[in-house]
């Protein structure tokens, strides 16, 4: 089971040169993703004079996030694994695919990358205020938490199925980043109307910190982390399970 695979790691791991390369890859990838994603939100606000988000605007924001994440995961996949998301890192930790020590390094890189991206947006847009994720009018907090759990589960499950599962290793170069970008775009198209569709605590943290607006910010940590953890438990515990019977042709367990 996943819980038996927990590994704390050694403190020396945090200062190892390979870990620094992973830190840099996660930092740059998260910066690129958040810069483009949050930038698309600011661009829509500018083009509509801060008007309400329309269906067309939501579609544009979702596509931008999907494309940016496709690129961000692709450029980091061979270095750090291309997590670009604390929830993904946590889900992989639960599944025993990364140590706690290295996971903390990834989290720092991701949160720092998201923050720097939003500071750069503040600079290049002449002070345009970043837009932290927020609950839509009438959306209950519990509903947003459940929504974030479900959509993040879908994201991290996709990561496991396309990038972590050893049976899919040959497809990591193209299929995994594309699938991950597509599931994020699809989730934003739906969840964006209710709570913004975060799935990524770093994506929510950067704009919240720069704008100093942490209203309901905890929702975008609790929901994604729970969703990522559940995906790790399900995939490692039920899909990548130890063999208990003779596998069917073409099916290994």
Describe the structure.
This protein is an all-alpha fold. The protein has a single domain (2-239), classed as Glycerol uptake facilitator protein (Up-down Bundle), CATH 1.20.1080. Helices cover 63% and strands 0% of the residues. The chain is built from eight helices and no strands. The protein has helices at residues 17-47, 55-76, 86-94, 100-124, 141-164, 175-191, 201-211, 219-239. α5 packs antiparallel against α6. The model is unreliable at 243-253 (pLDDT under 50). It is a multi-pass membrane protein. GO terms for molecular function: water channel activity. Keywords: Membrane, Repeat, Transmembrane, Transmembrane helix, Transport. It is found in: Endomembrane system. One of its GO terms (cellular component) is membrane.
Features:
253 residues, mainly alpha, Glycerol uptake facilitator protein, globular, disordered C terminus
């Amino acid at each position: 089971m996943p819980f038996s695979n927990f590994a704390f790691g050694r403190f020396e791991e945090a200062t190892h040169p390979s870990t620094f390369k992973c830190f840099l890859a996660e930092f740059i990838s998260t910066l690129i993703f958040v810069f483009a994603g949050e930038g698309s939100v600011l661009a829509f606000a500018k083009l509509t004079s801060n008007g309400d988000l329309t269906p067309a605007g939501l579609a544009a924001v979702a596509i931008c996030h999907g494309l940016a994440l496709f690129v961000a995961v692709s450029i980091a996949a061979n270095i750090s694994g291309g997590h670009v998301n604390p929830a993904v890192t946590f889900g992989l930790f639960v599944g025993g695919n990364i140590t706690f020590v290295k996971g903390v390094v990834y989290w720092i890189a991701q949160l720092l990358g998201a923050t720097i991206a939003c500071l750069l947006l503040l600079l290049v847009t002449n002070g345009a205020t970043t837009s932290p994720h927020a609950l839509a009018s009438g959306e209950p907090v519990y509903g947003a938490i459940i929504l974030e759990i479900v959509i993040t589960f879908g994201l991290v499950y996709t990561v496991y199925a396309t990038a972590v599962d050893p049976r899919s290793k040959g497809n990591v170069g193209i299929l995994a980043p594309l699938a991950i970008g597509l599931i994020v775009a699809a989730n934003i198209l739906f969840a964006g109307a209710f709570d913004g569709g975060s799935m990524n605590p770093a994506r929510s943290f950067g704009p919240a910190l720069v704008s100093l607006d942490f209203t309901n910010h905890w929702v975008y940590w609790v929901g994604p982390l729970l969703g990522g953890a559940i995906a790790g438990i399900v995939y490692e515990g039920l899909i990548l399970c130890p063999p208990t019977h003779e596998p069917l042709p073409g099916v290994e367990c």
